[in-house]
Amino acid sequence: MKRKKIIEGLFIALLVVGLFTAGCSEKTSGSGSTQAGKEQTESGRSESSEDDGIQASLSSFEAVTLDGGSFTQEDLASKDVTLINFWALTCPPCIREMPEIAAFSDSLPDNIQVVTVCLDGNTDEEYTKSILDEAGFHGVTLIAGSGDFMDVIYEIQYTPTTILVDKDGNLVGDVIIGGQEDLAGTYTDAVNRVLKQMGKAEFTSIEG
């Protein structure tokens, strides 16, 4: 219990800084990265990956799940690709797209998973659960953490933001920023680009 409180304390300390510097993005795009004021390539990705502001990896971390469990790099190792969606209770676009995220998650094969991170979820766990339940999301949601998890949190500038990581916790593919007009299509394209680079079979989302 003491260890969990220390982890949560570290999370809240950085979260306070992050929420004052981050924004909730209404901007939408069909695919690739989206962020107000950025120049985009034809594929939708930023000109430079450095512009995405996320350089950390998730090779060593411990996170606390909404149901009180733990989530570590070992939970990433069992999947080829993990999509991690960062959202907040104070972000209406994040909440609006959660049913689409839930549907996409349900459409995935066993080698791909979706995990969400509610940046302010530990301020009102019951409300967080109600949003996820109403959306039909049955996957893992993280509300606190330490190690590399905090490094990634500190680099999140907008909500919603979705990153893709491989089984070693390395960031791969595009960073997806802002609400998406075609979330299933955007996520499917992003995952399949990564799978193709890995030499893995692509998949077709039931929503795609």
Q: Briefly note the structural class of the backbone.
A: alpha/beta
The portion of residues forming beta strands comes to: 15-25%
How do the SSEs run, as a string of H and E? HEEEEHEHEHEHEEEEH
What oligomeric assembly is this protein in?
A: single chain
Overall pLDDT level: 81
- Count of discrete domains: 1
Fill in the CATH topology: Glutaredoxin
Which geometry do the CA atoms define? globular
The helix tally amounts to: 6
How many beta-strand runs? 11
Say which CATH homologous superfamily is assigned.
Glutaredoxin
N→C terminal distance: 43 Å
CATH secondary-structure class: Alpha Beta
* Gross CATH architecture: 3-Layer(aba) Sandwich
* Helical residue percent band: 25-40%
Largest sheet: 7 strands, mixed
Alpha-carbon Rg, integer: 16 Å
**Strand order, sheet with most strands:** 4-3-7-6-5-9-10
